[in-house]
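Case study 2.
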Amino acid sequence: MSLDPACFARLDAWSPFLVAWIAAFTALHVVRFALMRREGAERRPHSTAITELAGLPLALLQTDGFIRAIIARDPLSALLFAWWGPGFIIAAVYYIRRKKQGVKAQWGGLHFWISWLCKTNYLAFMIAFWVLRLPGPAFVYSAWIINDQIGLAFLSSDADRLRRTFHDYWFVRIGYPAGLLLPFIVPSLSAPWYRLDAALLLTLWILGICRVAATVGVRSMPHGSPLLRNMIYDKP
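Prediction:
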């Protein structure tokens, strides 16, 4: 059983667009932070819409990869794409419906397993990208995750994944910022735009972590956060 490269072709081809799309949200974080400080506020309420919109094209492309894998009879690729492709869309629809109903989403006591499936899915994708020699999508993943972390650090004073690393010791998270170094290592990603984007993301992420450390502390728990990634802290 092996991965069919054709199932990953569109994800790879759309990588430049995804990088630009995510960069637009990074710029939005900077603007929102500037406006927040101008108003004298210390924090902004978390925006689930902005967070999920940044990753929506990636989720749609993973759904495309899932469909291609089914057609190609590639169960390994289908399983890989299922989690953040159709799985993400189904979970998002369920979450939105429950929110409109004014009821908290219930995950049936599966918090622990859902959390670890998210972690292992990321690791499996990185292995797949390495095997198939696809540095573009690997960089997209790091840009997407670090962009999210920048918004949380500057706007919500939340170190998020760095904080959670100390809680579950999933040190694979080191790969998130480390992936931003790919444009300085891989020739196919060495275009000035990629390097500038990587340098800005890494710089903003470090500054954001320094801000959180100086204000509330890196290990400080967020209060009332609607982020599903914090379900690991919920009691069944």
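The first helix runs from residue 9 to 13.
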